[in-house]
Amino acid sequence: MKDILSVFRYERYRTTRNIVRMLSVVLVLMTFFGFSWGLYDMYYRDFYSTPRPDPAITEISPEQRADLAEEYADRIAALDQLVLQAEMVGAPDRVLKVYERERAELRFYLETGTVEYDFLQADDILDPTQGVNGGSFAFSILVALRYLLYVYAIFLGASSFSAEHRSGTMRTLVASPISRRDIILGKFLYLAFETAATVFLAAAVAVGVSALYGIEAPPILARTATSFRETTAFALVLVRFFSTWVGMVFLAALAATVGIVLRSSVAGLAIPAGFLMVSYGIFASIVMGDYSFNRTIDPERLASGFPVIALDLHLQGWNLDFTVAVLLHLAMAAGLLWISHIAFRRQNI
Amino acid sequence: MNLLELKDVWKLYGEKTALSEVTLSIEEGEIVGLLGLNGAGKSTLMKIVAGLAPLSRGSARVGGFDVEQEHGRAARLVGAMIETPAFHQELTGWQNMILTGLVIPDVSKKDMLAAIETVGLEDQFGFAVKKYSVGMKQRLHFARAILGHPRLLLLDEPLSGIDPIAAKRIRDAIIAFAASGGAAVVSSHVLAEIEHFCTRIVIIDRGQIVLDRPRAEVENLEALFLDVVTGGGKAQ
Asked: Which residues from B are below 8 Å from A10, CB to CB?
């Protein structure tokens, strides 16, 4: 254990004094507000208003109206189904109002060619009756920021072994009295710690910023496959914090393992990043295809079959599904640790 | 007492045989000059002793400890500077020393300062290594190798790129190290360098030891070396 902690301290010293890491942190902080707010805005506007009339166009011609009618028909049909579903599962009135209001707005626009009122204002997004509120801002920031955190985890994992191979400093470490097994364990332990510290920092800032919008955290409604669940934004922040950390641990372990096996920083960065992008791409294409045509797929259920996305798309608080997803990801990270050990123990340095 | 004992050591890289049938013992107080052409197996031999390259066959022991089965104990006795100096370039010389000290037991700041003084880097150890000249990096490499009170030094081209004054410092340090009960294996392509302070000459050719002789019995090292590596080991 002493040797593992020695490697942990070595890794912490090496990483925290590395200029690249410092630049990464600065980059994360610089992009924090702009990027996260932008994604937050885009995500919720799209999620709750697609398709919606452009408030800048206050009058439309009959031809345009015919085109829009076609475009909005799917959404109105979907809203009909959502209202029915909400009634069937006994969803709170607030939910029904949200759907009925949007359906009424679309119909009003198609019938009159005018926008009843501008419902794309931030006030609407922050209105508790809309399903999202100011208290959920912290949650939203973590949602938006997770991609940056994942990239950071991949960078950390890739640099933990392959960068040391490339620079030759791995020779000093392996020639030290510490066994190769303890080197692997120490470095993985550091990855787990560093990812936790980073996501904790992000969560602390996110909660702090959300306090600007009020910390009373009104309840929000999470739609599941079969029901609506009332929860609070801060409860979701805890789940998001944990799911982001587990996702980071998995991706860092993947990057480290690729770095050990292939001894290449580029592969250590590219393979986990590519894996993530391809997974999201396949997932998004299935969901969007279904969204456009028949809406028979529950995105959350579909996500459970995808690594990392299973953690990302969890909106129901901490339940059995989430526990299983977390344990599966930690088990996969442990499997990667074992593969790393096997590959590293007799590697020529 | 034998500090290093290699018995029938083989090292294969895939199909290629880098070392074969290498048997070698080194005792306290010896400074062994390891000579050979490029690719002869000098670095591979050092890497095996330092635990950087697993053996394919045979056994290697340092101070009686198996370098693979008892890596921790064996590695505590070894200080190595193998191949080109490798550092965390953004960090200072001092920070690189601290990093090494973190993974070697019982290394104090006093030990680090003493090692830096040995190579004469007192005035430069606060600079980032990326600003170091080749010679300065080599000196820092040596300082790092002597951290942790090793008994056996593995020095691959230790004087390469170093100015004459620093070279003398390092040579003196190696001689003093051996005199205090340690042993060193020094590889170099500069035969005069080896001739100058080694007590024993070992020549390795195509992965095999083809000559092992006390320095005192070698009159003309250059002629002997050329004879051995080009004449198929007749001089042995």
From this structure: 99, 102-103
